[in-house]
Fold:
Amino acid sequence: MLVVMRAQATEDQVRAVCKKVESLGYRAHPMPGAQRTAIGITGNKGEVEPGTLGEMPGVQEVIRVSKPYKLVSRDTKPDNTVITFPGSPVTVGGPDLAIIAGPCGVESRDQAFTIAERVARAGAQFFRGGAYKPRTSPYSFQGMGEDGLRILSEIRDRYGLLIVTEAVDNESLDLVDQYADVIQIGARNMQNFSLLKRAGRARKPVLLKRGISATLEEFLMAAEYVMSEGNYKVILCERGVRTFADHTRNTLDLSVVPAVQRLSHLPIVVDPSHGTGKRNKVTPLSRAAVAVGADGLIIEVHNDPDQALSDGVQSLYPDQFDSLMQQVRQIAAVLGRNVAEAGTSAAAAMSRMARASERLSSRA
Ligand code: PEP
Ligand code: MN
Structure:
């Protein structure tokens, strides 16, 4: 059920409706919009009796949401969700594209800093890098754990990049919530419902990757799990699905972008690195992702891909990332969207300052 408030409804009236919903034993999710606030009701087994709520001051109407996902749905919130970060001008879901770049995994302080400096300079606003790596083989590199998270948070301080990193279980989720700016839930965990609920109780935005064989509805229902616990800051991520095709690691399903945008108000970014698994396909598919209307890109970049401990074959060299950024900037402009100019972002300015202070200290 959804309670639609009148455009002129006061905050007190919204609060009173939420209180009433909770007193009936349900959960109320107020969703402020440009025109009006809607209040999603969850936790009801069957139909909520609309009578009492419909009569309350400030209420315009009480409607049934027929889709299985309620809070994720555009029926509940017609305007796009724009995710913001405290103390930062960066947004996800607005006119600026979110560019998230970095290695698959944090391997060392040197490796992470070298790559961060380059992606900041190229115009990225977010640094990615796993401290906990879900690997197909238990014998492969599993990530640096909390030491990796410490390195990531130093990168934020040094380069002004916001940090996106994966949580693989409840324990790592609490740590990622402390150290990072965005909690990544990986494709393999898209239907780990207890982890999704835990992410729903965390404070930071969640980047939710599509499962390797998830339908659109399953993908949106996973986001609903996070939102149903009260965390409305969800960024969806298309990262390719498994098909019969073997010329790529996965098949990047770009058609899911407009499909999501039709059904949901949540932002969606695209990961052409895992989506293709091949370095030479990352730039073309990044261009296509921006053209199709994605809200951002998440790209693996490595300074020495041949030696990378994970996903080297799909990682761009920093120079390739520079030229990818130049290309997507032009495509974004056609759609009236912006990609930060190289060297102009807060991250780039901090990267310049960091280089200058390194030069000074090496002279001293
Ligand atoms: C990753 O981003 O490094 C990763 C493991 O992604 P996915 O969950 O999409 O495979
Ligand atoms: Mn990877």
Observations:
- The chain has two domains: 2-63, 83-347.
- The mean pLDDT is 95.
